[in-house]
């Protein structure tokens, strides 16, 4: 069944992705990974470095991985305990990154 909230989120992301990949001159010839962040996100200073590590790791260990999420909705997560870990999981839109 049709769910308005889900449809709205899909349209939001569809517009944003098309705008970045197809309409902006600055990204017209860029084929690397783009990190999509909402305006109310806080990020760690090493977020781009971490993304680069994830992309390089996936190229060797998970060739079918085509998007990277640099955040989690899990509020009880101990960041100090899990700082060196990467997980393969379900899609979410928190710190989403992918390429063309």
From TrEMBL:
Necessary cofactors: Mn(2+)
Residues that bind Mn(2+): 40
Alphabetic keyword roster: Disulfide bond, Glycoprotein, Glycosyltransferase, Golgi apparatus, Manganese, Membrane, Metal-binding, Signal-anchor, Transferase, Transmembrane, Transmembrane helix
Catalyzed reactions: an N(4)-{beta-D-GlcNAc-(1->2)-alpha-D-Man-(1->3)-[alpha-D-Man-(1->6)]-beta-D-Man-(1->4)-beta-D-GlcNAc-(1->4)-beta-D-GlcNAc}-L-asparaginyl-[protein] + UDP-N-acetyl-alpha-D-glucosamine = N(4)-{beta-D-GlcNAc-(1->2)-alpha-D-Man-(1->3)-[beta-D-GlcNAc-(1->2)-alpha-D-Man-(1->6)]-beta-D-Man-(1->4)-beta-D-GlcNAc-(1->4)-beta-D-GlcNAc}-L-asparaginyl-[protein] + UDP + H(+)
Main location (coarse class): Golgi
Gene Ontology CC terms, in alphabetical order: Golgi membrane; Golgi stack
Superkingdom per UniProt: Eukaryota
Disulphide bridges: 62-65
Keyword Membrane annotated: yes
GO molecular function: alpha-1,6-mannosylglycoprotein 2-beta-N-acetylglucosaminyltransferase activity; metal ion binding
InterPro entries: GlcNAc_II, Nucleotide-diphossugar_trans
Descriptive protein name: Alpha-1,6-mannosyl-glycoprotein 2-beta-N-acetylglucosaminyltransferase
Known pathway: Protein modification; protein glycosylation
